[in-house]
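Running co-folding for S-adenosyl-L-homocysteine.
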Amino acid sequence: MTHPGQLLKNEKLYAGKELGQNFLSNPATAKMIVKKTGISNRDRVLEIGSGLGALTIPLAQTAMHVTAIEKDSRLIPVLQQELDNENLRNVDIINKDILKINFSEIAHNKNRDENQDKKLVVIGNLPYNISSQILFRLVEQRGCIEKAFLMFQKELAKRIIASPGGRDYSRLSAVVQYAADISFVTDIGPSSFFPKPVVDSTVLKFKFFHTKDFDKTLEKTLFNVIKAAFSKRRKTLKNSMTGGEFEFKKEFIIHALELAGIDANRRAETLNVDEFKALTMAVKETEKLDT
Ligand code: SAH
């Protein structure tokens, strides 16, 4: 790979803050990350925010195929040239916003020839300003994703893996922990990037799964319940969940909490995923009584 500083200078481009552009500048770090993922030549990879190809190159050298999604159209010809320089032909570049990508379409397209249902492996050094949004989308679309390796600002990574009870446990933690086993892969310091970010980064692994007794409808209710509970996180559940976006009535919420065996005076940050699931079932039961 060519150093991103050099590539940008050649093209008279600059790294855009609004697109979270901190390019990996150390090829050894990029290689190390790809090695730690265990991706092999049987894997179909989708890369989020390919940038100038720091990860795309070692990925294409390792995986069967890479779909590279990049929103910034200025970078596309540079990325293509970098891949051509390395003689890599197993990469499709898509110039699109990752938040508008239909993952199942990509998984399906790529499997057409082989008549098999192979899930995608997703990887990305994520633009930090939309990391949470991207993760919510991956959870929603995890039906066609086997696992994901994602790089976050270290503080956000801490929040994602936080256990209930602490300050870091959030709506994002509860939603993601419902949908995936999460493990730590590696920390990366600022000196591996251009331009250098102020903070450390962390790569996490997500092994997605489905909960048998939670179909799409119930899952939607669960996500709404979690959102409502955390909407006013310093209030007790009976107050935080009342009103707001979903217009739950206070008696309704108190009934559902009682049915689920959850003290109405607890706060959202103390509930584990199983308790949110129980509360969701109770909300469904209470809805039946209401109508
Ligand atoms: N993977 C590269 C670049 C990481 S920087 C590397 O590690 O060097 C984050 C990248 O995400 C940038 O290239 C940025 O342009 C891209 N990006 C930002 N918002 C995006 C979006 N909504 N959809 C797709 N790519 C996006």
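Result summary
The beta strands are 23-24, 44-48, 65-69, 91-94, 120-125, 145-153, 180-188, 193-194, 201-208.
The chain has a mean pLDDT of 95.
Job closed.
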